[in-house]
Amino acid sequence: MTHPFVQPSKVGLTILLTGASGFVGSNLKGYLESAGHQVISLSRSNKKATDPFWNYEVGEIRIPSDLRFDAVIHLAGEPIASSRWTEEKKGKIEESRVKGTAMLCNALTRIKNPLKTFLSASAVGFYGNRNNEVLTEESSKGSGFLSDVVQKWEEASIEKLSNSSIRICHLRFGVILSAEGGALKKMLLPFKYGLGGKLGDGLQWMSWVTLNDTLSSIYHCLLNETLTGAVNITAPEAVTNTEFTKTLGKVLQRPTRCTVPKSVLRFVVGELADEALLSSTRALPHKLTQSGFQFSSPRLEEGLRKVLGK
């Protein structure tokens, strides 16, 4: 069945995908296949000797020498907001991204049939907490744990693949909105019961994008050979946390009178509060828009209504 948001391609590509069982990866796999492309998962669960296999934790990777593919889309990584940040959790977040990417790229330099394109997940966390500053792909790095991890994450592929002819794109994702996973799914229950509210003072900017626009953005980057380097995968209109809260309440027809104080957030989730929930990042997708990409949901209310079926 053809995915409703993708046009079938005239040229079928073979794509090696990591993170295929994750929130974005599982949806992307079906999206690409519906467009006529072959997707091969690089997975820990592959058992056959002829299947691609990897486990970054033990430094093991197997990509059959006769396997031909045109592109790699690398989405694997330890979930950032699945639990409180302990030193162990932070270590897993960094290692899965930096060590995992370096190991994958090392293997790619040794394959007989060189690929053309390497798309790697990244994050707008690169920019750090920037208050009201408008951020594009040309903006400088910020400060903090996430910003440092993203920089190392991106540098891992640049360092390993810089001497090749492989086109590299770092997909700096914003908050991906979907009712089936990610941050929005976690928000829905309290909002539906009228307990939704702003986080802290609500002035922090939030760079968001719907799941459908995320998938079509990745596909656009895959096919558009002019795109290289960092690419912000965010909607063209960022919103403050207060705006997001009011809009979600409006779509769900629920009140949003509650406020979660900064002190409570810090007590509950620790460092994650300042690095993600209270951090202000107003990142805009200049490269996408300049390359002709058309968002299906450029504004928050219409995006939430599509995502939630409202």
CATH architecture: 3-Layer(aba) Sandwich
Total of DSSP H or I helical runs spanning 4+ residues? 10
Low-confidence stretches: none
Q: Can you tell me the CATH class?
A: Alpha Beta
**Per CATH, what is the topology?**
Rossmann fold
How many whole angstroms does the radius of gyration measure? 19 Å
Strand content: 15-25%
Order of helices and strands, N to C? EHEEEEHEEHEEHEEEHEEHEHHEHH
In helices, the fraction of residues equals 25-40%
Note down, in words, how this protein is organized.
The protein has 310 residues and is of the alpha/beta class. Helix content is 37%, strand content 19%. A 6-stranded parallel sheet has the order 2-1-5-6-8-13, sandwiched between helices. Strands 3-4 form a two-stranded antiparallel sheet. Strands 7-16 form a two-stranded parallel ribbon. The longest helix is centred in the N-terminal third of the chain and has 22 residues, at 87-108. It is globular and about 60 Å long.
Quick description:
This protein has helices spanning 23-34, 87-108, 145-161, 182-192, 211-223, 241-252, 262-269, 271-277, 286-290, 300-308; strands at residues 14-18, 38-42, 53-55, 60-62, 71-74, 117-123, 134-135, 167-173, 175-177, 197-199, 205-206, 208-210, 229-233, 239-240, 258-260, 282-283.
